[in-house]
Amino acid sequence: MAFFGPEMPLPAIGPDTRDFWEACREHRLVVQRCTGCQSFRFAPAPVCFECHSWDYENVESNGVGEVYTWTITHRAIHPAVAQAVPYNTVVVRLLDCGGAMITSNLVGVANEEIRPGMLVRVEWDEIDSDITLPRFRPL
Amino acid sequence: MEWNLRDRVAIAGIGHTRFARAGASGRTAFSLAVEATLKACEDAGLSPKEIDGFVTYGIETTDPYTLAQTLGVTRTRFMDRYPGGGESLAGTIHHAAMAIASGAADVVVSYRSLSGRLIPTQAGRAITSAERVSGNEAFRWDFLQPFGAFIPNQFYAMQARRHMIDFGTTSRQFGAIAVSQNANAQRNPNAIHCGRPITIDDHQNGPMIADPYRLHDCTQEADGAGAVVVVSSERARSLRQPPVYLLAAAEGSGRPDQLYNQLRHQGRFNTAGMEEVARDLYTRAGIGPAGIDVAQVFETFTGQVLMALEDFGFCRRGEGGPFVESGAIAWPGGALPINTAGGGLAEGYIHGFNNLIEGVRQMRGDSTCQVEGANTCLVTSGPSAMPSSALILRR
Question: N or C of chain A: less Cβ packing under 10 Å?
């Protein structure tokens, strides 16, 4: 069953984020690494925050991270979340890629079971022909 | 160049409307803004037509120039509309001070008005116009909303959760803040929660909104408006109210960290993002946290108050929980009474503006929970969303 309803807002693909979402369609979680100074950055941005280089590569993560923080939303603040309430939103800190922190949802675990530091692995939720979203499942 | 605005300006007039639950006033925010400004001028003993500068902030719907025209002002010299949300509250007074001290303007009004619910149930419209303007929209649309994170309640909840993970802070400690402020509101007839006392059990039994935040952890949108008149200190001394001087003000940001308005979120979730502002503020004031007699701490949510108290050095990082449970923030008798009119949690949430007005009242000796002998009052702006601001008032 879909995590959220069909009217859930989806990302808009633009020039600054196209690489990321195309990689998601291929079931690859990528994080930008600056060619100039090797700093990782997330979310995708056109320029390096540290050295201002415009050159980067998309480094594929092995998709494993730990739960850094989360919330459980109990109110249907948007019609598309009504079916999911109460639902979790988590921030996952990847074990690689400079510890990039990605906001997502956990699947396969009850809300009450979520713990800080839980190890989780990415899995892929194909929404439509353009968008596949990363979600995470406890190891 | 050295910051040079200490004691240069004072708040000479305050005005506000009745506060009502969101949508209950039956009035436009514009009408409320006009009322608050007229009252502030009357309090100062100045004609509205003497105002030559208008400053507001956040998602204010009353445009400063429209307000000026409506008041019959025929000559304006300074306008400012500070970006962000409540983070700019103190920043507006700082900007008024810059305008006056530089000679750009003589009489500056800072104001804020609200009417009706800001965040409709359609959370797809939850990104407000100010945040759209500040350029953070794409990050939120693409990397937060698809995962169910739409509104500040949720982002701030995740930050509070990190504080609980790092330091063992508890929901009951958040509740201590809610109960303390609610108690203050019982003495304030204009507080929305006057006559609606709560206990810690009420707090703990309240419905969960976004874990760990329950009903009583959250500010309540209100209909209302406030305005203050800022003039030079010399001018203020010639007017009818005791001047309330701007001892110091500071604004800005540190390393990017907060979740919902930053492109890169790193590891400072467990603060209110105001350490750098606090440092500047105390340096400019020439006093430290021990020199603050009372504080109006912008809430948005209880956990953010707790983290702001740590940022401003009233206790060590991570010790906010025990600090707020200790009675230190209570009135009367606490070492640092906070939000003495009830604040955004219990008086009404006019995006912090009522906290500023209460700060002025404390310095005039007019508060419904007056701190005996208070000479200084800290007023902080929106937490956990940079850039933010803060100021210290003095008698």
Answer: N
Helix (H, G, I), strand (E, B) or coil at A24: helix
Is residue B173 domain-resident? no
Hey, which bits of A1-105 come out as E strands? 30-34, 40-41, 56-60, 64-73, 87-94, 101-104
Q: Which member of A11, A41, A69 has the closest CB to residue B146? A: A11
Amino acid at B259: L
pLDDT in tens, B177-230: 999 999 999 999 999 999 999 999 999 999 999 999 999 999 988 999 999 999
Find out whether B226 and B235 touch, Cβ atoms under 8 Å. no
- What per-residue string of b and e applies to B2-23 under the rule 16 or more CB within 10 Å gives b? eeebbebbbbbbbbbbbbbebe
Q: Which chain A residues are closer than 8 Å to B207 by Cβ?
A: 74
Report d(CA B228, CA B294) in Å as an integer: 19
State the Cα–Cα distance between residues B230 and B97, nearest whole angstrom.
8
User: What are the pLDDT digits (tens) for B311-320?
Assistant: 999 999 999 9
Which residue range is the domain that position B339 belongs to?
9-118+219-394
Among residues A93, A44, A46, A39, which one has the least CA distance to residue B139?
A44
Chosen from A77, A89, A128 to mutate, greatest number of chain B CBs within 10 A = A77
Instruction: Report the CATH number that the domain containing residue B23 is assigned in CATH.
Output: 3.40.47.10
Provide CB contacts within 8 A for B215, sequence distance 6+: B206, B207, B209
Residue B71 lies in a domain: yes
Option in A12, A69, A73 nearest B148 (CB): A73
Distance CA B162, CA B158 (A): 6
Q: How many domains, chain B? A: 1
